[in-house]
Amino acid sequence: MKHSIRGRFTMIFVGLMAAVLFTTWAVNSFFLEGFYTRQKLKILERAYGLINQLVVEKADNGESLTEDLQSLYSADGEQTELSRLLRLMSEKYNTNIAIVDSMNDDAMPSARDARFLADRVHQYILGRNNPGTEVLVNQDNYKIQKSYDRHSQAYYLESWGFFEDNRTIFIMSMPIASIHDSVAVSNKFLAYVGLAALVAGSALMYFTTKKVTSPIMSLASLSARMSELDFEARYEGQSEDEIGVLGRSMNTLSEKLKETIGELKTANNELQRDVEEKIRIDETRKDFIANVSHELKTPIALIQGYAEGLTEGMAEDPDSRDYYCEVIMDEANKMNKMVKQLLNLTALEFGNDLPVMEQFDITALIRGILSSAGILLQQKEATVVFDQETPVLVWADEFKIEEVITNYLNNALNHLGGERRIEIRLENLGQEVKVSVFNTGTPIPEEELDKLWTKFYKVDKAHTRSYGGSGIGLSIVKAIMDSHNKECGVENRPDGVSFWFTVDGSSH
User: Fold this and answer.
1) Nearest-CA neighbor of 498 among 424, 418, 404?
2) What's the pLDDT score for residue 491?
């Protein structure tokens, strides 16, 4: 294989090992010396702080350090805190310390070469530093510097300066190893060991991965047979690792697939029916969107046109401007009405606005509707005939039935002709009451009657546009009556058209 897993594993191992070796070399080369030096600096700074605290306490008490330091070389003398500290610095950190009283220039016997160190701190105070001296810490009372001693050919960290009693000077000298040489040796050793580990590990990785790749090849062969619908193929391995688990899972998968294919054939038929239903719903949605777009296009165009006319000063006199504004408001009202009707219709169709059943007098309801529409009836020069005098109790959602009768009445007014007469009748059918709204005018073509309840359908589109109709009112009526589980319909008469619906009577 061109890109085998064995080769990839080996290359990944080699890459990781090389990255680890390179990172270790870089850390050793660039950071080890700085880390080593910082640790030594911390020791010197901590020693200064402790000794300075003891010196200040002695000075405050009017005592001398001489007695404390004498115990360093006394076999039976009592060890003081200061002597213990100096002995620790000498024995553990190989640090020589000299403490000098600047008043009498006496060097405290804290080190074998105290006098030598005392002379050196005097030179430093006078500014006579060795060439190549590097100051690492520069505080008010002391400095820490890196110096090179040509006699011993070694580097030292030296801390020197004054304690806070203003009379005692000191110097601490700590030898530091040649970190450069140590790093070079460490990196050389790391290179030899790392190269050997890299070669041995790569070879071991290449050969041991065969135990992983062989079962994988068996699984690949099994999957190829399953892809050809050969569900009798089985994984025969007995290992308990992840590959063994995968093989047994594939055996289980083969059995499940055999069962599932039969189920899929059955489900496919159901899915086909669902697809056809979805296509039907999509077509309905497309028709709905197209109808809404068509209905809104005209009022939007009118609003835009008249608004542009106002902007461009086409209506200069007040009457023209008022006319333009009236047209804009009228078209906006039509759009608002249609949107409200669509929201109402959508709520009804999706069952989000269920009827609240109650008993009420439908006679009183109709008279209230006629009273509210009195001005409109006068404007339309319509004659309304409603002879029912006695109460008629029905069971229904009063507000929704009011909307049905109002839609029927508005439809009658918009299509009124001939004698311009509207008749509203209540008919007792036993357990039901039939309500009909008749208007004189032109009958509806018989082939169009069943289409009237479809959203946006209009028999005479030009006439519907003239009074601002959207073709939604009758759809709302149908949705309301469906929610009541009642009938509604329309029928032609010789001199007009009658719309009707039924509701439950009081005895139901």
Assistant:
1) 424
2) 92
CB 231 within 8 A of CB 255: yes
Whether the full predicted model's pTM is greater than 0.70, yes or no, is no
154 three-class SS = strand
For residue 478, give the nearest of 404, 425, 418 by alpha carbon. 404
Report d(CA 147, CA 470) in Å as an integer: 100
Q: How far is CA 282 from the centre of its chain?
A: 31
Task: Find tokens 């969107």 and name the residue.
Answer: 289
Q: Ramachandran region of residue 94, left (φ > 0), alpha (ψ -120 to 50) or beta?
A: left
Q: Taking CA 140 as the corner, what is the angle to CA 139 and CA 145, rounded to the nearest 5 degrees?
A: 40
Going by the DSSP 8-state scheme, the letter that residue 108 receives in this structure is P
Please report the pLDDT score of residue 463 as a whole number: 41
Query: Cα separation of 363 and 374, whole Å?
Result: 17
d(CA 457, CA 12): 71
**What type of residue is 122?**
H
Terminal CA-to-CA distance of the chain, rounded, Å?
84
Residues 6+ apart with CB under 8 A from 155: 146, 147, 148, 149, 175, 176, 178
Q: Cα dist. 229→232, 258, 263 in Å?
A: 9, 9, 15
Provide the token pair at 439.
């208007």
The Cα–Cα gap between 53 and 420 comes to 117
User: What is residue 394's DSSP assignment?
Assistant: E
Domains and CATH numbers, the chain: 5-183 (3.30.450), 354-505 (3.30.565.10)
The 10 Å Cβ neighbour count of residue 62 is 6
**CA nearest neighbour of 148 among 133, 128, 161:** 133
Gyration radius of the chain over CA positions = 53
Specify the pLDDT at position 458: 57
The low-confidence residues of the chain, meaning pLDDT below 70, are 1-7, 64-79, 102, 104-115, 132, 177-181, 183, 206, 210-215, 226-244, 248, 280-299, 301-302, 306, 315, 330-331, 334-335, 337-338, 340-353, 455-471, 507-508
Q: Identify whether the C-beta of residue 476 lies closer than 8 Å to the C-beta of residue 403.
A: yes
DSSP helix/strand/coil, 13: helix
pLDDT digits over 314-354, tens only? 767 777 777 778 777 866 776 676 676 666 666 666 666 67
Q: What distance in Å separates the CA atoms of residue 217 and residue 270, rounded to the nearest whole number?
A: 39
3-state SS class at 143: strand
Q: Which of 78, 145, 72, 82 is nearest to 112 (CA)?
A: 72
CB 212 within 8 A of CB 5: yes
For residue range 269-306, list pLDDT tens digits in order. 888 887 877 776 666 566 566 556 655 666 676 677 76
DSSP 430-455: SSEEEEEEEEESPPPPGGGGGGTTST
